[in-house]
Amino acid sequence: MTATVSASGLHLRYGGTRALDDVSLRLTPGVTGLLGPNGAGKTTLLRVLATAVPADRGSFTVLGHDPGSSRGRQEVRRSLGYLPQSPGFHPDFSAFEFVDYVAILKELTDRTARHREVRRVLEEVDLGDVRGQRIKRLSGGMRQRVALAAALVGDPGFLVLDEPTVGLDPEQRMRFRELIAQAGEGRTVFLSTHQTEDVAMLCHRVLVMARGRILFEGTPAELTARAAGRVWTSTERAPGAKAGWRTGTGSFRNVGDPPAGADLLEPTLEDGYLLTLDDVDAEVATA
Amino acid sequence: MRRSDGGARGALVVAVARTVPWRAVGAGAVVGLLVVGLPRLSGPLAAWLGLPLLRAAALVFALGLTFLLDDPARRLTTPVPTRRWVRSGLRVALVAPVAALWWTAALALVPAPARPPIGAVTLEAAATAVLAVAAAAVAVRCTDEPEPGPSVAAGFLTLGLLAPLLLPTRWNLFVAVGDPNWQAAHVGWAAVLAGAALLGAACTPEPTHSLRARVAPGR
Questions:
Q1: Keyword set for this entry (chain B) (predicted)?
Q2: Could you give the angle at the alpha carbon of B113 between the alpha carbons of B124 and B165, nearest 5°?
Q3: How many CB atoms lie under 10 A from the CB of residue B44?
Q4: Closest CB to A38 among B19, B146, B218
Q5: Average confidence (pLDDT) per 10 residues, chain A, 287 residues
Q6: Considering the entire predicted model, what is its pTM?
Q7: Long-range pairs of A173-179 with CB within 8 A, sequence gap ≥ 24
Q8: Which residues does B contribute to its contact with A (CB < 8 Å)?
Q9: What ipTM was predicted for this assembly?
């Protein structure tokens, strides 16, 4: 499948911290998940791809446009929808006014067409009924949907979502999943999250990142398969497990290198993710 | 859907006008006018008092201007095709006539006998205002903070209060009318105005490699 976003050798350093360390990736249409611990560089990578901050070195293209030049950056921004981690709003704006404001900044300048588009995206995120309400009166989940509507306005080909479900209750998260899945139909969505279930349910590809580097790139099934044969159950906490916890049934679920004859369990994507991070930690410790 | 014409520019101007922190600017303007106007209630204004009152009013108004580039939605609107310098420039352009009217009102509140030379004191007020906006532009350029106004205002107030005390005599900008250094001080004010304008303009474009908006640690 042709890549809509292609990055090569991205480096970015903040003081002594390598926020991005030789990051290369290819994103194709559909939802690609980005997993990683706090401080992994996920937000930085998303901000670089969203042209919010330039990389020190390396290059990337979005839908064939190179943001290295001013003209290219403008073209990338015309194809981009960006939902940052803490979006922030002008609180006195209504949902409609705010999305309309973003639409104007996105150069949707024909008033009638723009208003039609704003109504469309607000309907899409299920806020059609409250579009006249001031943002400060909306719930956290609704505000997050206003921000998603602002990202979706103008029908961008590349959507960058930075932890969009953080702080949402389970019902709101479910609703957001529907919206993201819908957004991923026909466009490229890059979704940073701590929620492995979001990735398992939404993404056709997943990247795992830590210490500014991409540690894994593949399908969610491939990430899950990394934990095959490394998850087991026992009646007591297994001393050699990388992680282990008592489940609701009273038995222990262990992740790591199982002892001979262990009662193996079906791994989850979270197991694969934890083991991927742990393998790298072990490599670093050895080095 | 995308086109560029007068209507489009009008929509942008209206949209940006709604994002200007008018409350902060207005509060600076009102308090500034009170600073100039209230002393008159207690009797005729001493001739020497006009200049310090106008300077204080200019500082208070400038404190309001330190909020001018605050944008709560900054993180969401950073990567949009409408460039930041256009949005910031529009905010400044929208506030400039208000500032001019406000200053005219402030001058009018000072009775003629106490009023210092209008050109010179206007230069001081303009330099103070432009310096405040430049400080806000530096904060926006060098940090990831959507609303740096309160920090910039605190820094600017400290600078405004300490500058008359700390500046060496030969560089003293806060001289009285009739002081032999009055002319030289206003050459200094002109330099401050020009320097602040250049600094503000230099900080308005998008961050580049050398001065980057920093991401909060831990992400």
A1: Membrane, Transmembrane, Transmembrane helix
A2: 40
A3: 11
A4: B218
A5: 90 90 95 95 95 93 92 93 93 94 93 95 92 93 93 95 87 88 93 93 95 95 95 88 89 91 92 89 67
A6: 0.88
A7: A173/A198, A175/A126, A175/A141, A175/A145, A176/A141, A176/A144, A176/A145, A176/A148, A177/A201, A177/A202, A179/A124, A179/A125, A179/A126, A179/A145, A179/A148
A8: 1-5, 7-8, 11-12, 15, 18-19, 71-82, 87, 146, 207-209, 212-215, 217-219
A9: 0.86
Q: Are A263 and A238 in contact (CB under 8 A)?
A: no
- A267 vs chain B: nearest CA distance in angstroms? 28
**Which residues does chain A have within 8 Å of residue B70's beta carbon, measured at their own beta carbons?**
none
* CATH superfamily, with its number, for domain A1-79+157-211: P-loop containing nucleotide triphosphate hydrolases (3.40.50.300)
Residue B159 CA: distances (Å) to CA of A104, B40, B118, B153: 38, 28, 24, 10
The backbone region for A134, taken as left when phi is positive above 0, alpha when psi lies in -120 to 50, beta otherwise, is: beta
Kindly report, residue by residue over B1-24, the tens digit of the pLDDT: 554 456 678 889 999 999 999 999
- Whether the pLDDT of residue B56 is over 50: the answer is yes
On chain B, the residues whose CB falls within 8 A of the CB of A210 are: none
